Amino acid sequence: MVTTQKQFVSENKRKLMIDERLEELYKKAGYAGVNISKVPLGHQITIYAEKPGIIIGKKGSSIKDLSSLLEQDYKLENPQIEVKPVEVPELSAKVMAYRMRLYLERGLAHKRIVFSSLDSIMKAGAEGAEVSLRGKFTTERSRFIKLRKGQIHQSGEPAKLVDAAVTDVLLKPGIIGIKVKISKPNTYRPQIIARQLDPAAVSALQKTKQSTQTVVGEQVQAVAQPIELPVEENKES
């Protein structure tokens, strides 16, 4: 008997495998993610990419091949595939990571790639961005480069809202790891509540404060007032 917990784990595992397969197939299309949901007619699959035309193909031929692949290999019932473009590719961490991987494969300088990627992300309106590269670039010794612009939350609840992506590229010197973090605009704002005080309540509070200060002052003066003791006169015998 399949429990709810095992079914939940199995569905998420299948979704992860499909995501990795689509990432491998459509890395040149700027693959940004997939959303899989169960509908009465089967499974609704929404793919997000920078270049949807590459995924759709000529007259939808690639979509038909992908539909049969998902149905046979991953046992999806009647998959209905929809491809949507990414509104702002520069604000997608996965798209920017794949774009950097393609630039590195073409042989562009890694420093130039990092600086241009950061500039593109910040010009798109991001609150902050962080790009890091690790691996062998020109020498046998591994190096690590990390650059950051703007504000990136590293801990707490806001850190979970930061869009992050990790990928790698194999070059002649070795494997280079790529990590991109993007803090999208209006992602997190602290809740500040401004309350307007009642003028009558403020006036009553000030009067109470003044009366309290007056009473305390009178009590202090009464305590501080010197006490005159009677002086006994010496009687001559």
CATH superfamily of the largest domain: Ribosomal protein S3, C-terminal domain
Instruction: Provide mean pLDDT, rounded.
Output: 80
Morphology call: extended
Number of domains: 2
Tell me the helix content: 25-40%
Unreliable stretches? none
Major β-sheet profile: 4 strands, antiparallel
Class by SSE composition: alpha+beta
Order of helices and strands: HEEHHEHHEEEEH
Strand content bin: 15-25%
According to DSSP, the number of beta strands is 7
Number of helices: 6
Main sheet: which strands, in order across?
5-4-7-6
Please give the radius of gyration in angstroms.
34 Å
3D structure, described in words:
Helices cover 39% and strands 24% of the residues. It is an alpha+beta fold and 237 residues long. The protein folds into two domains: 4-86, GMP Synthetase, Chain A, domain 3 (2-Layer Sandwich); 90-183, 2-Layer Sandwich (Ribosomal protein S3 C-terminal domain), CATH 3.30.1140.32. The N and C termini lie far apart (121 Å). The chain contains six helices and seven strands; from the N terminus they run αββααβααββββα. The mean pLDDT is 80. The strands form two sheets. Strands 5-4-7-6 form a four-stranded antiparallel β-sheet, with helices on one face. Strands 1-2-3 form a three-stranded mixed β-sheet. Helix 4 packs antiparallel against helix 5.
